[in-house]
Every structure is written in structure tokens, then in C-alpha cells.
Automatic annotation (TrEMBL):
InterPro entries: CB, DNA_brk_join_enz, Integrase-like_cat_sf, Integrase_catalytic, Integrase_recombinase_N, SAM-like_dom, Tyrosine_recombinase_XerCD. The keyword Glycosyltransferase does not apply. This is Site-specific tyrosine recombinase XerC. It holds the Pfam family Phage_integrase. Gene3D superfamilies: 1.10.150.130, Intergrase catalytic core. It comes from hydrothermal vent metagenome. The keyword DNA-binding applies. Residues 322-343 are annotated as: Disordered.
Amino acid sequence: MARRKRRKPVKKPDPYPIDHNGITPYLNRFLEWSAAMALSPRTVDIRQRMLKRFIHWCDERDLNKPQDITRPILERYRRYLYHYRKADGEPISFATQQQRLVPIKAFFKWLTKENYILYNPASEMELPRVHRRLPKHILTDEEVGRIINQTMLHGDIGIRDRAIIETLYSTGIRRAELINLKLYDVDTRNGTLMVREGKGKKDRMVPLGQRACIWIDKYTDEVRPGLVVEPDEGWLFLHEYGEAFHKNRLTDLVKKYIEAAGIGKPGACHIFRHTMATLMLDNGADIRHIQAMLGHSQLSTTEIYTQVSIRKLKEIHALTHPADRPRPCQRDGQAEIEDNAETQLFTALAAEETEESAEPEDEETMV
């Protein structure tokens, strides 16, 4: 595969110019404080994007100081978000509305604490309720096979894409976690994958099935060398210009294969997370092991979860993951408390998908 030169990142014009607004210096201090409090870069970035939108809205209404923002002003902004329509005429989701309001509450709480304003106008601002629902769409193992078969029509890039989908399906890791994988995070000899600073800035090691290992090795041996642009930064999965994927590019890639398979189920990266958890539970995996693999710190249940070793996780993965298990494994009857735990697990998965879909798009383009 011919190498291409690394493209230079080009920033799109700022859709929310706010440098002239008097609230902006306070925003910059708030973001510095957020970073100093060891919040994740993702959280700081979301705060910046959402607050820039809000300050731009304020600027259009000649609101130029934190002291200009009152409780009725914030209520107007909340109603503005509720009535806002996207280019396709659809409203923004309650999850997106909530994501845009939460940083505002944090900002004004900080302004009050630092004595920049006398009272907090956002203290009683109500957030939209985001209904927690169970995942609507789960793939069967046969449907996963149909999706994977689509990658075989695309040559070397198809090998990379199959390795990506096999990794998502085998491990159930999140989209951002896959994007952030480095070469040294994957141990195909021992069948493990290290997720570094996953959600909540926590590391975890998860099993990597034999089939996924085979395709990752094939990709790293045969395809990745032709994609690398020096200096090699060590990202495991590279797009055609030798760089790590942006989240929306990865979503579009996975969605393309799902649509090409003609399954008729919407979704992208996260549907493999739902599917892995569902099929492994159906095949007899314990809820504790699924929780450990997915990186859920806790579930709202009275059951006490214990530490689970990677060795035990690998045994359970080999027995219950449909891509690798050697024989059918019937699931025993579960106690009511475990059934509740399963419901909460899948509700948490659906909430993650809602949160992921509410994330702002990448603002950086490439030329």
C-alpha cells in the first residue's frame, strides 16, 4: 500500500466567536481551574464547547458580564434549547440539552464560589430528564458475521476494518477507548487488551478473543506498515492518512458496514458493546464478569461485587463469547437480585449510548 504524506490539521472558522465578550476571561479561568482539578481532557473540552455556545448566545443579546446573567436569562436559554431545531428540522435530544446545561451550572457555581458574583442564578435551574431505557437493538452472532463479511470486499483497508470490528465485538470497549489504543496495549500472545484511562480515568485489562487476535496480528503485520507516516506515534488503528481516527470518522466507518449488511438495525460502535454483553450473559457469563469487562465502576444493586482477575475473565470470555466459545453453554436460572442487576447493566449501556450520541462533532478538519 502506497504511503501518503501526513495531512495538516486545519481549524474550521470558529462558529462561536466570543473573544470580545466580557464573560470570556472568566470562562478561560474556569477552564484552567477545571484542568487543575484533574478533570479529564474530554470533560474540559465539553465544558469549553458548551459554554462558548452559551456565551455566544448571550453576546447576541448584549449580555457581556457574568452579573448580567440572571435566573430568568438562564430560563430563556433553557427554553431556547428546547425549541431549537437542527438543519433537518428535528429537535435536539434531551440528552444533548442536558449536556449543554450542566457546564453552565458548574460555571456559575464556580463564579459564586470565587466571589465573582454575589449569588448563583443557576442554583435552581432544572435539567431535562433523560429517560434511561434498555438498548433497543442487539445483533445476533449471525448478523455480526454478515457485517464482518462486508469488510472482506475492501482489500487491505478491509483487513483493518475487520480488526476494528472484531475488537469492538470481542471486548465491548467504548469508541473512544478503541481510538486511544496504542500498539503496546494489545497482547495477542496472551489474549489481553489494556484500556488506559477509560471512562472515569480508570485503567482496566480485558480479554481479547482468539479471532480478534488473529485479525489484529494480520492488520499490524500486513496493513499498518503501509499506513504509518513517520514519526510513528504508536496508535493501533490508523486511517488512510496515517493518523488516529477521529470519533465521528470511526462511527461513520462502522455504520457503513452495518448498513451494507442489510440488517436494518441502526447503530455503530456502541451496538457491539450491547451485543457482547447480551450474548455473553445469554451464554452463562456472570453479571460481575460483564461489569468488569465493560468498565462499569458500580451498578445500583444490593449485590456486592468483588474484584475479578484477568485470568478468570479470560476463562469466562472463552466459554461465553459467541465468537470463540467451543461449545454451547446453557445459562443457569438467576436470582431476582441478579435479574435486577442485568436490567441496570443494560440501562447503563443505553445511557452511555445516549451520552455518546450527544457528544459534539469534531471541529477539526484535514486537508
